[in-house]
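Annotated sample (chain length 785).
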Amino acid sequence: MALFPATNPVEIRNDDEIRQLEVYLRRSSRDRVLVVVTVDPEYGEPFVDPRALFDHYAADREGIDVATIRTVALTKALARRIGNERSVYQGAIRVYPCDDAWMEPGRYRESHLCLQHSSNVHVYELFVRNTIDAAIRRKKELEETSSAAPDVRGPADGRALVGDGAVSAPQPSEMVVTPNNTAAQTAGAAEPSDAIAQSGSAQSGSIQTGTSPFAMTAQSNSSQYEPLEPYDTMTGTAIAISDADEAEALSEYLTSPDRQHPAVVVTRRFGKPLFDAKSLASNLHDVAAVFDLVTPKATWGLSAALPEGTRVYNGSARVYPPGIDWVDNPSTLPYYVGWSDAELKTLTETIIATAIGKEARNYSSADAMRKPEIVEMTIAGIYNGRAIAQLPGGGLASAVLPERYGQYVYDRVLRKGQKVRGELNPQSRIVMILPDPQAPQQAIEAYASGQTVLAHATKVNARRCIVELFPGVTIRMDAKDETGICDMRDLVSPDTVIPIYIGVKGTVSDEEYQRDWLLSITDANVSDIRPAPALLHLGPPWLDSADMKKAVVPAGDTAMTRTQFGSMQELVEFITDDDGHIDESAADEVFQYLTQLQGEARHLREGLKVSNDRLESMKQKMMQKQRENSYSDGRQYYKSPLPLFADKAEGKRFEREQMDMLVRREWATRFGPEEKKSHALPRTWAYSDWFFDTLASTHISVSKVVAVMVEVLTGLDIELAGRQNHRLRTGSGGDDPYRLGPNDEICFRDSLQVGQAAARRLHYMRSADNTVTFTSVRTHDDFAL
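Output written by the structure step:
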């Protein structure tokens, strides 16, 4: 069921609903402004009531959509889909306008982010409403601009009339309004320029795809385009699409379920081709059809015919895979748009690799007549974003990596001579490599504290730097952890390879950021860098020191001068003339030299002090991190904190308070606001003197034990079949008597694990006043209290 447009505020509860929200956000034209409200984890509720916001604009007959995201995980999921700069999080509110201009590179601020700067909630709510009002005014301006343009649409289907000199009216989704932009200027931009005007006679051809005929023309006198032979779109020649009819035929071809090969569509920006369609077509010979939308009419015509979220315009490109699954899931259809020559070159290589990969996957999922065979092969070479594989019989084939490796350059994944397996299609001579990836934990297993390794810096701002030691091992580094550094941008730039010193090696978990590592950029030893691990077994390092940017070392105020006198006698001879008198000019030179040496010595002493301070700071941080790693809440097994305290009584008090905190936090995050009323947590509970000793010795996840303890305290363990709740007996026999506590408390047993050898059990007892005392964590055959 579609969430939007909605008749009530919408609560986003899972990843599927995040996807629906993304699809709705990406619509090129919506009837309503969309407001996304998030929740500050510390505050617990939205700063502005979503219902009041929705009702306010419903009453004004200017309906808006309001979506609320309450969890950090879901806000991160949205950010991964639309980008961090376009997303919203941590109690902020974002107002997304009706058009999609905010999705264009560099224009994300057109979706206004409202931050809670004032402690006065009413002031903040007024600020949010003013922002929404501005977005509604913008919508009206767009509508007025669109209605002022001449109506040249046909009466029946709304498409532009072709052949009578009429110009297609711009769609609202394609217009960008600026203070100096008028309807006349926008409409006038639709006229083909001399650079893209089509002249001469056209030669017709057709492509038959199932029951969908596809007819289009190609210029016979064009140096870039050649006539298209019937039913053949993969001759290595780009196909020009210049009018609305051809665009409609192209849309039918793209959306035909019988299309067997990928299709690449590129567009132009103000008539200028950014992607080289001819080069794309040449590289994708026998792999994919390449279409170039050479006029605004063609671009608008195709955009009007394709579903929302799948369109292509304004100098961008898309790769449409075979089949029509992408129609129902537009988020799987990458949108390639570049601004610099370097960026366009990289994107062109990505488009080629993506199209080849989709063709290879198409063959691998084809019918029995095209069944690929699994082959062992050797990488013979890598060039131009592809790999050449030597087959067992001595032949060669084009080898491609799965789409998930599209972000990496091929020579960072494969190396010449590497043995790999793949699915070979004999007809296309394309091999889809079946990767043998290294798991992150396995890849960096050899890393150790005290080593300098390579890392990929992904994001950098003044306070923080995000680095990848390996895909899946991402760590946040703060400027405060680098001695004498106030701005991380002084040390590193985004998307660069840098050396990193490992102060403390941490663990690898499923979390987005690893939290128990201690890293440093300033302490890296660039003369001794450990090679990076490989993405695939037997592959090349995924990072190379050749990718590092050379550090620029500024020259000091004075250059270090080597000693010029081997002895005091040489110094005396230098400053004394032949008559035995002091030569003032020579003495002055020596004085300047000594002054220089004194300055250099002072500079060295200051540098040594900074180095010693940094070393001491690093030692303290290493010790702190090691203690945190040993006693971290996120550890798998329990470790008693008592060794951290000289006073054992204080240590035991801390141990109980720590467990109380873990239980309360689990209860707070497990139950929603309404559920907490029916699953209330008692004010107090207790632990036996031996409970924590048994917890540490039984080796079970602390988080699992805490979760079951919450079920016990709220009474859920009785309802859940998996807990197997029953009274604790003195032995395994069904006739053994029930065990009682020291004050006749009733003793119970819950299952922490089921169907495992030596499955763990939680023992506890209830007193007459219903107070719970957790007594021990035992194995299945241990019936002690």
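Annotation: The first helix runs from residue 15 to 25.
Annotation: Residues 151-232, 364-370, 550-564 have pLDDT under 50 and may be disordered.
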